[in-house]
Amino acid sequence: MEKLIKNPVLKESIIYKKMDNGLDVYIMPRPGYQKQFAIYATRYGSNDSSFIPPGKKDPIVVPDGIAHFLEHKLFEEESGNVFESYSKLGAHPNAFTSFKTTAYHFTSTDNFYECLDILIGFVGRPYFTDENVEKEKGIIAQEIKMYEDNPHWRVFFNLLGGLYHQHPVKKDIAGTVESIYQIQKEDLYLCYETFYHPTNMVLFVAGEVEPDKIFKHINEHIKKQKADRRKQEEIKRIYPEEPSSIAKKVVKQKLHVSRPLFALGFKDIDVGYKGERLLDKTIMNEILLDLLVGPSSEVYNLLYEEGLIDDAFGAQFTGEEDYGFAIFSGESPEPEKVADILLEEIEKRKKSPWEEEHFLRIKRKNMGQFIRGFNYLESTGVKFVSMIFKDIHLFDYLERIEKIRYEDILKQLDTMYSSERSCLSLILPQ
Amino acid sequence: MKARDIIKYELGPGINLHVIPDTKFKTVFISYCFHRDLNDDYSYNALLPAVLKRGCEGFENIRKIETHLEQQYGAILSVGVQKKGESQILRFSMDLVNEAYLSENGILAQAFYFMNRIITKPLIENSLFKQEYVEQEAKNLKNRIASLINDKMSYSLERCIQEMCKDEKYSRYVYGSIEDLEELDAGRLFKVYEDTIKNSPLDIFATGDVDPEKIYMLVSNSLDIERNHIKAIPETVIKKVGIEEKEIIEEMDVAQAKLNMGFRTNTHFTEREYYPLLVYSSILGGGPHSKLFINVREKASLAYYAFSRLDKHKGLMIIGSGIEREKYNLAKDIILQQLADMRKGNISKEELIASKKSIITSLRGAKDQQSQLVDYYLSNVVGNSNVTLDELIDEVDKVTIDQVIDISERIKLDTVYLLSPRKGGGSYGKAN
User: Fold this and answer.
1) Contact A310 B140 (CB under 8 A)
2) Does the structure show a pLDDT above 50 at B427?
3) Is residue B205 included in any domain, yes or no?
4) Among A320, A410, B391, B398, which lies 20 to 30 A Cα-Cα from A22?
5) Counting one residue from A and one from B, how many pairs have CB atoms under 8 Å apart?
6) What is the CATH number that goes with domain A250-429?
């Protein structure tokens, strides 16, 4: 089955095909681009550390940070290192692990189809030995330490630790130095077999490419696959029961920084769905945050003129099926005061909202930003994949934003932004 | 893109317009770039764009500016300052969605008139900039300078360069100095502004799906600027004799040590030797194919990252890596061994090819990103080079191993800088 999805506003289209082994492939032809970008991703991230493998009965708990560890180790092959194969072709490979996704990608300007073969090949061919697993621990320990020194990263994860009691989203994606030292090759194989099945994965390609040739190359790989890799039963992911309350009101940490960093977070408890409804909720919150504290808002200008924030201040919403949060973050000499003013502003707006003209203007702004995003193949690919894993098609955005009504936004303000479900995370100078 | 694909117009004394048309982009990116010497005025240069961004005639505050931009489908106005060699570039840029994707006309034309206002119609009180804006932006800039410490990787890199170029103006931080801003002289700031507008070379870039003639008309009709005597910017000094290697160790409450090593390449990017130098740096530390990645990370497991990068304007090469403090000497030895190996000619054909291809992928990729395209051609203006991206790609492709070995003789270690955790662990804290 092959499907052409067109977007007349963007003047772009995407070709979709489900391959025989269950893999979903999306291709976005972009004539004129020098680069080709391919991203091969699995619905598996740092949140998935407890699960029941398909066909098994008992739940398993693996060490924290294993999805990220696995991402590092897949680059190792019996015949050498994947980087080497890409280097010969001049492509730039990389990978990332997030809460819900592990993705492998490359950018090429030549030899695209050979690079694609490498990508599909190595992701499908784990090679873990005691020795190569052990060797990686030192490297990842340094990666973890690099993040320990990053105050922006710390203020974010400390906030999640304050918002959540149990949910694994509160844990660092890479795990801890202690947890990664527990990882053995058997754990990696188990996670690999569970989560790296074609039916659990997506491939997205953008650039000046030929779709038929891509499908042909993928089919060659499928032919080589073992029969038992063609079908998979359901993976049961186990997430602990998360109360609707927050775990901590304030979280503080001292680091060597020039002045305080803050993140004020709100926990979303209206969760449990994906697709269009999740997209609508995300759009509503994005517009809402702009109305509340965007650079044209009253409160932004007040805080800026008082010297309480600078242009590093911003707000963003994250919406997933099983969790969600909004975060206001920045640097400030008086972060508690900023948090108080923001909370006051939210309450004030619940009673006396904005002019509707402001809402319409923010809509235009968001539409423009969305169109701008298509300048960049890499970020388009990353965004596409993370959305498709939530059953959202990126192209639907413009149609959905048109339909969002001002009343819906105000309802969202009432339900989502409650000081009871807010937490303030602070990084303070030593 | 061929050379003819960048179209240049002379608009007036020291004003050049460069248009790079490309149908694939969804936005039009416009950038006004004033060239300044990295002299004693550098803190003033850095402050200027921030003050101008606060308001102008017709758009007197952030709120009015941002309201206007939102109305224009989220056009983005960004201002800032860049260091390119021993010059500072004051930049005023706008990124707007191309009208072809909107049911509205006039957005492009308005953008040029808007930019002109921001640059040439500031808010004036008693023949000076509005005092409140100057004071607030000076404070913001001081905070920004101080916040360099928050990013340990950038901090250690900057500190390495500062120590290395101690007696050169290149040691000046792009955002200025806190001391200058403490004693800010509002009269001097306004003089710096007038000097910029009247006497500094100005390059304007526009790229996107645009008609160059139309852009030319829009810029020349909108730009209301009085020019006087155009000042040439002094060339960046890149060669330095009598270098003595030095080692600086600074302690801080951090989890990871950051090692930076600064080298003099004694090569400017307009010299032909720059091509093998590019390849040299890529073989050494330009990605997963490089000697540093393979030997420091993959073989010794000492680091997550280890890279080398060139500063093409100043002729520097900087190596950076995040390591354990106890592994400092080992890491340094392994790194220096890689350089020694290259000098001895220990470079494989595979390394050469991988490096050349990797550079070419990046250079071709630059054509897919408007900001990178502009940055490349702006650098050409600064360094007085005419080499197009395609010509550079051809030159890189021709580099031989012998040329890379030859260039290694020019590369001299100057400064080793280590940002280190305090001995005995220190008080590195956890969240509570």
Assistant:
1) yes
2) no
3) yes
4) A320
5) 202
6) 3.30.830.10
